[in-house]
Amino acid sequence: MRVTPNSLRSFAAGLLIATTSIGAVYMFGPSEAESTAKVETFKTEKLSEEEMVKQLTSNGFVIHTEAEWNKQLTAMNENQEEKAEDKKEEKTDDKVVYKTILTVSTGMTSIDVGNALENANIIKDGLDFYKEVEKRGLENDLRPGTFEVESGMTTDEIISTIFK
Q1: CB 117 within 8 A of CB 158
Q2: By the 8 A CB rule, do 142 and 107 touch?
Q3: Mean pLDDT over all residues of the chain?
Q4: What pLDDT does 88 receive?
Q5: DSSP letter, residue 124
Q6: CA–CA dist 85, 89 (Å, integer)
Q7: What's the pLDDT tens digit per position in 119-149?
Q8: What are the DSSP calls for 10-58, one per residue?
Q9: What residues contact residue 92 under an 8 Å CB cut-off, 6+ apart?
Q10: Deepest in the core among 28, 89, 135, 161, taking most CB within 10 A?
Q11: Where would I find the H helices in 36-125?
């Protein structure tokens, strides 16, 4: 396509006419846009208390007076307190015992084992476990394998299970 001075003038004139038309509509058009959506008007009639309750209950709502609501809250709190007391009575001095399957692989250290046992809630402190193993001179006698240990075991039992 070849651009000539006449085609450029025609294009410029078209832009000028379009801009002028849009400006005229903007300046002299309506000041507020009208919505094309249908707007529903709501009735502003006053409903009686009975009519409101009837309408709400027909839509699945439950209506209570403040006194009824407070009565229900009180009953619920009493019920929760009774359940809490029952749980306290049911609790005895049973100790929770954690069990885990510990997999010791080649290259693990006794520090790694202590941390794994601590994370599994078998022992309280992994560093103390490592120090005990080191005190016994067993840090290099770690036996690779899979071992079942539980929190009810003593440190001696755990060490004798995992170390040679």
Answers
A1: yes
A2: no
A3: 84
A4: 62
A5: S
A6: 6
A7: 988 888 988 988 998 999 888 888 888 888 8
A8: HHHHHHHHHHHHHHHHHHHS-SSPPP-S--PPPP-PPPPHHHHHHHHHH
A9: none
A10: 161
A11: 49-58, 66-90, 110-119
Domain boundaries, the chain: 105-162
Burial class (CB in 10 A: 0-12, 13-18, 19+), 25: exposed
100 sits in which H/E element: strand 99-104
Q: Taking the CB of residue 74, how many other CB atoms lie within 10 A of it? A: 10
Percent of the chain's residues with pLDDT above 70: 86
CA atoms of 101 and 118, how far apart (whole Å): 13
> Pairing relation of β-strands 99-104 and 145-150?
antiparallel
Return the pLDDT at 96.
80
Alpha-carbon span 6 to 12, nearest angstrom? 10
3-state class of 99 per DSSP? strand
Q: pTM to 2 decimals?
A: 0.42
pLDDT category of residue 162 using cuts at 50, 70 and 90: confident
